[in-house]
Protein: OsmC family protein
Organism: Litoribacillus peritrichatus
Amino acid sequence: MKARIKWVENVCFMGESGSGHTVVMDGPEDHGGRNVGLRPMETLLIGMGGCASFDVISILKKSRQNVTDCVADIEAERSDEVPAVFTKIHLNFKVTGNNLKESQVKRAVELSAEKYCSASIMLGKAGVEITHSYEMVEA
């Protein structure tokens, strides 16, 4: 896996993935940015949420659950000291579908957290306290 980060100006950078997709990262105006893109730490958090969501949906589809929507809300806390690393991250999955089995939703979230989500497992090994929850909504 490869990526390239290109400096644009001030604190604005363009990130390009090995698959050719790009993302703009920028800082707030009071730090020399123009606020035209995600902060790098926001990008990391969104990447982790995307990784976990990919797992949850994939596991639910394989278990033949009729999922119609899935939203992961993420709340994170960071250290007040430099480096301002993540100290706690909580993911809440809101899974919508028809006749979902709670045991299958719970299992999908647990498997993502404990076995499949490379991003959250990596951050957990680095000392970030990561927790998960879920809720189900009938479509």
User: Anything to note?
Assistant: Residues 40-138 form a domain with the GMP Synthetase; Chain A, domain 3 fold (CATH 3.30.300.20). The chain has a mean pLDDT of 97. The first helix runs from residue 40 to 62. The chain has two domains: 1-38, 40-138.
